[in-house]
Specification:
The protein has one domain (about 5-140): Cytidine Deaminase, domain 2 (3-Layer(aba) Sandwich), CATH 3.40.140. The longest helix is centred in the N-terminal third of the chain and has 14 residues, at about 10-25. By secondary structure, the protein is an alpha/beta fold. It has a seven-stranded mixed barrel with strand order 1-3-2-4-5-6-7. It is about 20% helix and about 40% strand. The protein has helices at about 10-25, 65-75, 100-105; strands at about 5-10, 30-35, 40-50, 80-90, 110-115, 120-130, 135-145.
C-alpha cells in the first residue's frame, strides 16, 4: 500500500507558512478543509484559528470544542469536510512531538510547518495511526491549480 497523499494548492500552503510567521514565536493553528478521496485528500480551504493556549503558546496549541464546531460548520457550508489540522513549530522541526501524538485524533491529516527565527522552513503532513501508537508520514503534493468548490 502506498503512503497517503495530501494535495494542496501552493496558495494555501503559502497561507499556512504566513500564519506561522505571523504568530512567531508562538504556535499558529487552523483547520484543513477539503475532500477525502481514495488514497488521497485534497485541501480546498483553510480556517485560521486562534491558539487558545495561554500557558505555553511557544510550544503548544489548543483549539476549543467551539473551534471544532466552527470548522465543521464552515466545511458543511462549503460542501466539503474537515479533514485535518495545521500548526507551526517555532524553532523546532516539522514533525509531531509526543505531546502532539497524545492530543491528536486518528484519521485527520496534521500539517506542521517549521518556523525558524521567524522564517518558514519545512512543511510536512502526518496521520496518527488508529491505535494512536505513532504517526505515519503523508506526502504533500503542491500545485498551482485552483480547485473548485
Amino acid at each position: 500500500m502506498s503512503a497517503p497523499l495530501l494535495k494542496i494548492r501552493e496558495e494555501l500552503a503559502a497561507q499556512i507558512r504566513a500564519h506561522g510567521v505571523e504568530t512567531y514565536p508562538y504556535e499558529c493553528c487552523g483547520a484543513i478543509l477539503g475532500r477525502d478521496g481514495d488514497g488521497s485528500r485534497e485541501v480546498i480551504a483553510l480556517l485560521a484559528l486562534a491558539n487558545r493556549r495561554d500557558d505555553s503558546p511557544r510550544n503548544r496549541f489548543e483549539v476549543t470544542p467551539g473551534d471544532v464546531q466552527l470548522a465543521e460548520k464552515t466545511a458543511r457550508e462549503k460542501n466539503i469536510e474537515l479533514i485535518g489540522w495545521y500548526h507551526s513549530h517555532p524553532d523546532a522541526p516539522a514533525r509531531p512531538s509526543e505531546f502532539d501524538r497524545e492530543h491528536a485524533w486518528p484519521w485527520y491529516s496534521y500539517i506542521i510547518v517549521s518556523v525558524q527565527s521567524g522564517q518558514p522552513r519545512d512543511m510536512n503532513s502526518w496521520r496518527l495511526r488508529d491505535d494512536r501508537s505513532a504517526y505515519d508520514s503523508e506526502a504533500i503534493e503542491s500545485s498551482a491549480h485552483s480547485a473548485s468548490i
